[in-house]
Amino acid sequence: MDRQKFDQLFDMTDRSVIVTGGTRGIGLALAEGFVLAGAKVAVASRKADACEAAAAHLRELGGDAIGVPTHSGNIDDLGSLVERTVSEFGGVDVVVNNAANALAQPLGSMTPDAWAKSYEVNLRGPVFLVQHALPYLKESSHAAVLNMVSVGAFNFAPALSIYASGKAALMSVTRSMAAEFTPFNIRVNAIAPGPVDTDMMRNNPQEAIDHMVGGTLMNRLATPDEMVGAALLLCSDAGSYMTGQVIIVDGGGTPR
């Protein structure tokens, strides 16, 4: 490998990236990483003011960024997100499905409404966003899809079965997408984070947080920034021979 090829491994210059749930937590950290690697980024979340604040922050980092108010459970919003991104940046090279609904109800007292809302955002949204973006991904010479799942897709998840089952389904969809999209040179992978210091995590009782931390070998929460390296690997040319994979980023918690 020569110096030029090496320097291009993680280079995302001029690639157009959509990041859902991109205004805080893991999503914002990923958006920052993509911008610093040279990408043009469209961040999406439900709140317009949060979208614009995140986009302004990314522009302060020297990147080209827009914020697009989007409810990931709304199919029309997902189509508009793709259209706006294409209008602004000329195409779509990478889709990052990070937005998630953290509704938690125990088995035996679930409501159909909670189940539907969770699956609309955590499973249906990612599938249909990729479907909307597919014509543009097919045109890209560096196309990649990154689905954010969870170690809950592998582990016991008492009281979190709606969320965990949706993430397990998204992991299955990741593998199906990878197989179906290979003829179009679109790579599809996933990251399964363990406990990360985000608003979603802080909404849990301290006892639950301590339990999750205690299940890791490193005995601490991750920072959102610690998801960036794996994301860049899977979305850049550094991961050019990786598809249908799930990288577990959990401080050593899952295989025990």
Protein model, in words:
The protein is an alpha/beta fold and 256 residues long. It has one domain: NAD(P)-binding Rossmann-like Domain (Rossmann fold, 3-Layer(aba) Sandwich). Helix content is 45%, strand content 14%. The protein has helices spanning 3-7, 25-36, 48-60, 75-89, 112-139, 161-181, 199-202, 206-214, 228-235, and strands at 16-20, 40-45, 64-69, 94-97, 144-148, 187-193, 246-249. The protein has a seven-stranded parallel sheet, sandwiched between helices. Strand 4 (94-97), helix 5 (112-139) and strand 5 form a beta-alpha-beta unit. The protein starts with a helix and ends in a 7-residue tail after the last strand. The model has no long low-confidence stretch (mean pLDDT 95).
**Structural class determined from secondary elements:** alpha/beta
Backbone shape = globular
Strand order of the largest sheet: 3-2-1-4-5-6-7
Rg of Cα set: 17 Å
Count of β-strands: 7
How does the major sheet shape up?
7 strands, parallel
The CATH architecture category equals 3-Layer(aba) Sandwich
Domain Ketoreductase: 15-194
Protein name: Oxidoreductase
Keywords: Oxidoreductase
InterPro entries: KR_dom, NAD(P)-bd_dom_sf, Sc_DH/Rdtase_CS, SDR_fam
Question: What tags apply to this protein structure?
Answer:
256 residues, seven-stranded parallel β-sheet, KR_dom, alpha/beta, Rossmann fold, Sc_DH/Rdtase_CS
Short structural summary:
The protein has helices spanning 3-7, 25-36, 48-60, 75-89, 112-139, 161-181, 199-202, 206-214, 228-235, and strands at 16-20, 40-45, 64-69, 94-97, 144-148, 187-193, 246-249.
